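Weekly modeling sync, notes
Attendees: AB, CL, MP (scribe)

Item 1: holo prediction request
CL wants a bound-state model with zinc ion before deciding which constructs to order. AB pointed out that an apo prediction alone won't tell us much about the pocket. Agreed to run with the ligand included and paste results into these notes for async review.

Input as submitted:
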Amino acid sequence: MIDKPKPIIERIQIDKDKLQFLKDLIANPKISPFDKNKIIKKITGLCAICGSYATQIVTYKLDDISLIERYCDTCISKAKL
Ligand SMILES: [Zn+2]
């Protein structure tokens, strides 16, 4: 495992309507987890730890590539950045 460089953390801009849509989506028992994930991926991406919708994007700039990870507000504090 190589040491990760210091990451750049950016908040994902989610407008109020989209956030409500995501909350309703997650709470809806009629939609399968698979379909939920597909929809969430299109909007914010999934949190790398819990699989909920992501609210923060963490970018590690390596030599010529960027490694991108997504986290929700809860998991960003647990993530080893
Ligand atoms: Zn999470």
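Recorded for review: DSSP finds three helices and three strands in the chain.
Action items: CL to compare against the apo run; MP to circulate these notes.
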